[in-house]
Amino acid sequence: MEDSLLMMKMIRRLDVLISLGLDGIGGPEGMRVADKISWLKERGLQAAEIADIVGKPLNYVTSTLSQRKKIKARKAKPCPTPN
To answer: pTM of the predicted model, to two decimals?
Structure first.
């Protein structure tokens, strides 16, 4: 029981450190939340972990990731050329 509580406290502190590190990226104005979400996803974090770190609900994170994925797919899709 005590080990579990200690582990949860350590995880929370690491989440705070990651969050503080993200606030420092991108200059004085910082990164937008959507950019933070994408950045964390690119580094292999799951949506639930990202939601904890950025302080947003899970459905916000999954929606943001879905929108970014659609935008990326559109950019990669070649435009048809008229004949």
So the answer is: 0.68
